[in-house]
Design the sequence.
């Protein structure tokens, strides 16, 4: 805005402000004249007025407060070879950061220990000795330590970065006994492994125990207690007066110390069993086993008091309590003598409890024989307001996302073609044990959402949640729904929701794009996503979907060569952007894999797909991409490591996770065909079409499989179905040509074929065509197509040699 | 008196005597002092951080300046510089958070109502920063007014003194600027719209 105009804007604003609102319009008519733009600007500013709720009227004291809580000067700096990314936490022992290790290209946790004599050489060497012994422990239930050392006088420990919750946080959610006992068993196993190597923890407490997002218990900080209490030179672990007066160092720990530790006697591995018992007691009752206002009260309680049985204990909890009481014996010789014994006892109680539960019809949707399939159906808009239609998919997707890390649950992908919402039918057809049905109504700025979890075979409602919030709070409303459902699935949902945006506009675009993408309208999806990433350039989800849409546009059927190259470039850029913004976003890795697949870069394609499957082990798409990278069919003529077994394994895994994944079925059928296992291919195709009766790609796959098997009459019917189902595109034209050929109309079919072949990469179609000619006995025509295929991809030679359908052809042509 | 105390007091005097380069040096010292104060406060591990942005600025002033040796003008100049630093510290932090918001805590944050509010405020802060940068290109003084009022908690009178204008002018411009900022941050035209 030029200075003149800026001045005029202010003058008009102030002058108009002095007038009563009803006189302003005439005033502005007079002063602005034909300058509509200026007038609109003044009116907009006046309309904002002065209602006192301005952001700038509130000094950022809350932000400063939070900043103080989390700010740390090390963030963003280099520490040794590690780049410190953010502060995870800070406590008596030191400070923990999330950091990146560029050498091994992984994210790690670094703990910087707080020691007063960082320059004292004996302290340092003692630290290294102890920490290395602890670091040598290698067990799934013990935090993996990668590196220990001293940098500029700061002892540090580099370990794997855990995602999940501390047992401290877990206890606060008061989980059911059946839920946490498996974690306790894991902790015992970790302890047993350490005790076997003579390492005693000495400081077990809820803060040092952790449950990862995939449900593994981990013990943290082995050996640290001994290092940090170096002033007690002997084996005596007596907390000195000095440490007792430093509450942040000792107080948290005090309540979990064993009597022998408190009273300064020598300790062995059984001290850990006492401490673990105290932790388990807190799990059971929600209260510390030994509490008191002053340190002396706590000490007295540990030395004298017997823990009280929680009053509301059910059978299982009562059983566990008896074990806990045995851990908490004052005399070490009266306790469990090994962590292994405790683990065994806990397992026995737990096994009894799960048996009991299946008897009385568990109210939670967990099945003893494996994970449950769950589908989240698109939400129903109770008010027929078209402009809110995008919410239907958006709410379903966010709930799917929020539930994705829950154990024992497999989420079946939403597809727009899913017409069935009838629970019985979902159960019969797809084996979906549970479905989530939701409705929403938006009235003005209020959004009301009702969500039900329904057991499909009995059509009963298991959980029902109703939430109302302001529409502008949509994002937190979605989180709340997901959290409540996650709780209904009897698990914490510590899953962060990565890739989120703070821009509602961008989110809306993204959700619209997602629907379009699912409907195969990739161009339209791209349009919305481009706007979304302009609105929020840090929106990783949108970048990933954008990359995915671009990658879909590079398919030969979708675009010409020049456009493909451009789409490939755009797909790769967007995918990298998404992956850079959020390294844990599996969609970004999927997009990368798709982009590299388009570029025929098999190694990177495979690596990205593998990463995606690691980030989300239940993601069918990742396994399809992996399978494709190994599968036997010649595709675009590039060479790659082909491994039929791996390909099949990955594809079948994808289908176990999502039986209605059309792409996976298609890939499997083609893989089997080109592995010269046409019979199995036909079986796979029939199975696929049973689940997805109208899937055109599958219909075509079945048709060409029939050709390969020489079942020409059925093939002709199948081709006719393809030609009918599809309204445009190469496949339909090819199918029409194939029908001509199969009916013996060689000339017309041949001409049609030439027209089809002139378009796009064609290795597969060359071979399919050659197959038809072989069956028709036209070996000369077959030969030219076989040659074209083999020139494009040498792998075809092997196929032609192996495939029985070509046997006559090979004999005839030598 | 500490070294930095000496240094800041001297720099303020230099500035009062017309040395323009003193401001740059002051910025550096004040920025690191505010950061240090923030860090120290964290290390204390106080559960109840009652310290506010404005209190932090004042604490820095008390620590860094020998008050008897400088005049009122110099105090205001110091606070103006502190406001700039405060803006930089908080906005840097907001942007770091944004880039790291996919970290492990994202969910927890979203579930805690109080923190959701704070999360919005962080986002709003970066928008405010963008808008102020834009505003400074057209009208530097208005941007400074916001900086002083918002980030350092200066009163209308103190702001007027810092900028060598009358309180009436500050009042007028403050009213206008608030409306303009709100329109720029929230209203149509400022961000990409439909």
Sequence:
């Amino acid at each position: 805005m030029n200075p003149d105009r800026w001045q005029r804007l202010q003058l008009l604003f102030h002058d108009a402000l002095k007038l009563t609102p009803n006189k302003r319009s005439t005033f502005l008519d007079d002063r602005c004249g034909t300058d509509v733009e200026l007038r609109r600007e003044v009116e907009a500013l006046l309309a904002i007025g002065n209602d006192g709720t301005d952001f700038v009227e509130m000094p950022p004291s809350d932000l400063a407060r939070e900043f103080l809580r989390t700010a740390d000067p090390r963030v963003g700096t280099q520490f040794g070879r590690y780049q410190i990314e953010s502060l995870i936490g800070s406590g008596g022992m030191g400070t923990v950061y999330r950091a990146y290790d560029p050498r091994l290209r992984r994210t790690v946790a670094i703990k910087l220990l707080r020691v007063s004599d960082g320059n004292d050489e004996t302290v340092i060497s003692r630290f290294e000795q102890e920490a290395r012994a602890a670091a040598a422990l290698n067990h799934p239930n013990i935090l993996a330590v990668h590196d220990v050392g001293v940098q500029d006088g700061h002892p540090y420990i580099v370990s794997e970065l855990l995602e999940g919750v501390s047992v401290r946080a877990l206890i606060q959610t008061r989980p059911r006994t059946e839920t946490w006992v498996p974690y306790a068993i894991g902790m015992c196993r970790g302890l047993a492994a350490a005790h076997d190597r003579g390492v005693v923890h000495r400081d077990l407490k809820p803060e040092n125990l952790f449950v990862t997002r995939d449900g593994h218990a981990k013990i943290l900080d082995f050996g640290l207690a001994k290092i940090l209490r170096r002033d007690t030179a002997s084996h005596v672990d007596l907390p000195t007066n000095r440490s007792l007066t430093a509450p942040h160092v000792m107080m948290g720990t005090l309540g979990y110390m064993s009597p022998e530790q408190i009273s300064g006697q020598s300790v062995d591995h059984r001290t850990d069993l006492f401490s673990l018992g105290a932790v388990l007691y807190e799990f059971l009752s929600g209260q510390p086993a030994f509490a008191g206002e002053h340190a002396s009260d706590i000490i007295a309680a540990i030395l004298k008091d017997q823990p009280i049985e929680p009053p509301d204990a059910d059978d299982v909890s009562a059983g566990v309590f008896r074990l806990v009481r045995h851990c908490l014996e004052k005399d070490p010789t009266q306790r469990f003598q090994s962590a292994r014994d405790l683990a065994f006892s806990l397992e026995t109680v737990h096994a009894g409890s799960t048996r009991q539960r299946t008897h009385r019809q568990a109210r939670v949707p967990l099945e003893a024989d494996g994970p449950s399939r769950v589908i989240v159906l698109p939400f129903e808009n109770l008010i027929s307001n078209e402009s809110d239609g995008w919410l239907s998919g958006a709410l379903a997707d966010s709930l799917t996302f929020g539930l994705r890390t829950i154990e024992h649950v497999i989420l079946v992908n939403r597809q727009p073609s899913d017409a069935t919402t009838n629970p019985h039918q979902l159960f019969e057809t797809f084996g979906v044990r549970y479905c989530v049905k939701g409705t929403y109504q938006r009235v003005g700025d209020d959004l009301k959402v009702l969500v039900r979890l329904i057991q499909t075979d009995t059509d009963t409602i298991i959980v029902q949640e109703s939430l109302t919030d302001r529409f502008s709070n949509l994002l937190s409303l979605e989180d709340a729904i997901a959290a409540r459902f996650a709780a209904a699935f009897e698990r914490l949902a510590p899953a962060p929701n990565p890739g989120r945006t703070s821009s509602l506009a961008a989110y809306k675009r993204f959700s619209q794009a997602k629907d379009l993408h699912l409907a195969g309208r990739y161009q339209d999806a791209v349009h919305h996503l481009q706007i979304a990433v302009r609105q929020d350039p840090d929106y990783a989800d949108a970048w990933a979907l954008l990359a995915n849409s671009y990658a879909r546009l590079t398919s030969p059927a979708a675009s010409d060569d020049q456009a493909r190259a451009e789409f490939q470039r755009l797909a790769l850029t967007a995918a990298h952007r998404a992956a850079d913004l959020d390294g844990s976003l599996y969609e970004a890795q999927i997009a990368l894999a798709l982009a590299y697949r388009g570029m025929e870069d098999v190694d990177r394609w495979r690596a990205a797909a593998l990463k995606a499957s690691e980030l989300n082990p239940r993601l069918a798409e990742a396994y399809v991409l992996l399978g494709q990278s190994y599968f036997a069919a010649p595709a675009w003529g590039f060479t790659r490591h082909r491994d039929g077994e791996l390909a099949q394994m990955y594809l079948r895994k994808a289908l176990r996770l999502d039986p209605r994944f059309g792409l996976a079925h298609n890939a499997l059928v083609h893989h089997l065909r080109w592995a010269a296992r046409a019979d199995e291919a036909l079986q796979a195709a029939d199975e696929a079409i049973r689940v997805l009766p109208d899937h055109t790609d599958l219909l075509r796959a079945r048709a060409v499989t029939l050709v390969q098997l020489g079942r020409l009459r059925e093939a002709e019917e199948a081709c006719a179905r393809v030609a009918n189902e599809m309204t445009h595109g190469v496949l339909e034209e090819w199918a029409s040509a194939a029908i001509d050929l199969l009916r013996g109309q060689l000339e017309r079919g041949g001409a049609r074929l030439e027209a089809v072949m002139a378009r796009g990469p064609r290795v597969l179609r060359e071979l399919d065509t050659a197959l038809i000619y072989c069956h028709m006995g036209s070996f000369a025509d077959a030969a030219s197509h076989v040659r074209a295929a083999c020139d494009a991809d040498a792998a075809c030679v092997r196929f032609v040699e192996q495939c029985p359908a070509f046997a006559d052809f090979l004999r005839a042509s030598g | 008196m500490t070294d930095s105390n000496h240094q800041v007091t001297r720099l303020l005097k230099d500035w009062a005597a017309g040395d323009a380069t003193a401001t740059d040096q002051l910025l550096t010292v004040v920025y690191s002092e505010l950061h240090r104060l923030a860090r120290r406060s964290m290390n204390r591990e106080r559960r109840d951080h009652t310290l506010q942005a404005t209190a932090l600025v004042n604490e820095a002033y008390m620590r860094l300046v020998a008050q008897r040796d400088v005049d009122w003008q110099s105090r205001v100049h110091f606070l103006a510089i502190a406001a700039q630093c405060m803006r930089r510290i908080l906005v840097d932090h907001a942007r770091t958070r944004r880039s790291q918001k996919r970290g492990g805590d994202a969910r927890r944050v979203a579930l805690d109502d109080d923190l959701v509010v704070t999360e919005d405020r962080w986002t709003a802060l970066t928008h405010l920063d963008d808008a102020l940068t834009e505003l400074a290109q057209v009208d530097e003084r208005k941007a400074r007014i916001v900086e002083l009022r918002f980030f350092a908690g200066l009163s209308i009178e103190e702001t007027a003194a810092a900028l060598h204008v009358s309180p009436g002018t500050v009042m007028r411009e403050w009213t206008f600027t608030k409306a303009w900022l709100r329109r720029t941050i929230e209203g149509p035209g400022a961000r990409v719209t439909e």
